[in-house]
Structure prediction request, 605 residues.
Amino acid sequence: MVILFDGIAYGMLLYLMSVGLSVTMGLMGFVNLAHGVFAMFGGYLAIVLQQYTGLNFLLLLPLVFLLTALLGAVLEVVLFRRLYGANPLAHVLLSVGVVFVAVTIATFTFGPSVLSIQTPHNLQGQVSLAGITIGKYRLFLVCVGLLLSVLLWVGITKTQYGARLRAAVNNLRVAAALGINVNRIFLCTFALGSGLAGLGGVLSLDLLGIEPNFALKYMVYFLLIVSLGGAGTLLGPFLAAILVGVIDTVGKYYVPELGGFLIYFVMLIVLLVRPNGLIAAKGITSTGT
Amino acid sequence: MTMRKTGYMLELVFWIMFVLAAAVFPYRLTLLSQILIMGLFAVSLDMVLGYAGILTVGHAAFFGAGAYVAGLLAVWGWGEPITGLLLALIVCGLLGYVFGYFVSRGADLTRLMISIAVCLLFAEAARQFSGITGGSDGLHGVNIWPILGYYEFDLFGKVAFSYTYVVVLLLFLLVRLILASPFGLSLKGIQGNVNRMHAFGANVHARLRMVYAMSAAIAGVAGALLAQTTQFVSVETLSFERSAEVLIILILGGAGYLYGGLIGAVVYMVLHDHLASLSPQYWMLGLGIVLIAVALFGGGGLMGIVHRIFYRRSDT
Prediction:
């Protein structure tokens, strides 16, 4: 039971870090292998901020979210925007290039070792809930994850911004003709996704730590979640992230000799049965980008 | 007609250059062999990526598989090099055919993911079954018998270079033949307009599967060559970084130009040899910046630039 819960908490983290990718990749059709860079940036930023300002962990979260979103916005304008609608190969090259640069900068500034952060006292320790003992921090992760997913769902399906985004994705030219500022919508969405990844990066400090290879190491997990979940939906990546988190945690606990096998194997099976993911978005990007 | 003749001449010059380079730099034969091997690997990637338009970032799976097949065969007591290459060719071709089934369907994203997953799966397998593969330490004790029972591998890599040169040249000519055939042209058609190829009645999936198998087989031979000439196989041959590296080589040289992979390998490996020893960190930074620049401004890599100059001249 405890392991299951740990798996869910891990899944929530993965969800936060990859939901932005699900939007850029699924809705905007941009194959971004550099998404992990934002999570990494968030993690390092939190460490630096805590060292120099001594801010409370909970106050750090929104701050890191905003700053990472800002970085995402800048990169979108300078780099990513130029390649919307280009060949996916160009996306891969650009984003791999960004990852390489980011890894170098991170190694240069922080050294190659794994860093972590001090979580506040009231999030340490265990709590008993309905007969099972679970880590407080993991409970906190699950709550934050659920809260943010509900917010995202409301944001995309109920608000005007969400409606505009969906319109822009469905048919870019018609949406533009209707007077929707498509560029701005995409910019905001990209920034939002990056910010969430940054937030995920901070939250993962306690569980995973951070190192210069973070962006590459977890890239596979992000891609896995997006492609398993079916790019372009909200529910898909959520389910996929929890699935990946649980399978990975349970697998590593009970059959450690299988290592990372299990998760790749599950992925191959799922993609064999459903090439477009668990929940395929209707009408958009189901075939080709 | 003169254009075609100049083309042949240039090709001839390219292959003679390697022999000359070997004569001029007898102490850099290992590097030259590695260039040829990576070049062949990049050409195999070009078949699926440049010609058939399948986006894959996991081609090291087959490179590594070929290396392990040839390496294990030698470790288990059969060090005959040419049968080693053939076995790698067959095994990787079959693997490619099986995984081609996954890859030929689905959108770009799905293809990308499957290719990465297969590569990771193989790397994980090589790490886990350390009893057979030597795990993270790599596979040692790869003893290769003399080629044709006569030419023994020497310390300076003369035989290794000649062997690599001949095998790479033969396979390159084979690839060239395949790509110039109606089958090769139909691949370009698939990349250009899939729907129209369907309308022509071409069996698109079967063709993609076939080219994926061929490409995997050739990547496998490239891996086997590396294993035989270095007498060692490391898990790194299966890594994601290796997949990214070959992709960079191909893009740098120019995808879809036949010689792109080879030219890319020459430029990349020579630069890598000079710069990476100076500072591995700056090397990665520079590589990243070059990649970003190529993605933003570069079309077709080095071969693309040559091609454009060539065409502009022939127009006037």
